[in-house]
Design a protein that fits this description.
By secondary structure, this protein is α+β, with helices and mostly antiparallel strands. The chain has one domain: 2-Layer Sandwich (GMP Synthetase, Chain A, domain 3). Helices cover 48% and strands 21% of the residues. It has a four-stranded mixed beta sheet with strand order 1-2-3-4. Strands 5-6 form a two-stranded antiparallel sheet. Helix 3 packs across helix 4. It starts with a strand and ends with a strand.
């Protein structure tokens, strides 16, 4: 039986998953979404995951530390794809990256950037493209 990693569904945030102690794990060959759940998980959110992915859900118990690692890995996947697209200049991959731009990990990064600038008392934020990546100044 084959399975596939799943992306973070639109509308779901890292904070939602951490609060409910749940993380989409994989898509089974039969179309079922396997969800990792830590002890004490708020299982009422399982219905929200089923709705967000449009699939039936199977809950699998794992440790709280494992759920947190899975959530972190899932929420940073879009950021890694953006870096990969910049390095390879792949048009198809760049299109996929543009599609990911409105998904929660990118929004989370922008929110953190704005919060850091605010905490530093900055009046503006400058983003500069460089060969090594993107540099933020404020």
């Amino acid at each position: 039986m084959s399975s596939t990693e799943v992306p973070l569904a639109e509308g779901l945030t890292r904070e939602f998953l951490l609060h409910h102690r749940l993380c989409p794990r994989e898509l089974a060959a039969d179309g079922t979404l396997r969800v990792a759940a830590a002890d004490g998980a708020l299982l009422d959110a399982v219905d929200d995951l089923a709705y967000a992915y449009g699939r039936p859900v199977q809950v699998e118990p794992v440790s709280a530390a494992e759920v947190e690692r899975m959530i972190e890995r899932l929420s940073t996947r879009a950021e890694r794809l953006i870096e990969l697209a910049q390095v390879h200049g792949d048009d198809d991959l760049a299109t996929d990256v543009r599609d990911l731009a409105n998904q929660p990990p990118v929004i989370r990064y922008v929110n953190l950037l704005v919060r850091d600038a605010y905490d530093a008392g900055a009046s503006d934020i400058h983003l500069e493209a460089e060969r090594s990546g993107l540099t933020a100044r404020f």
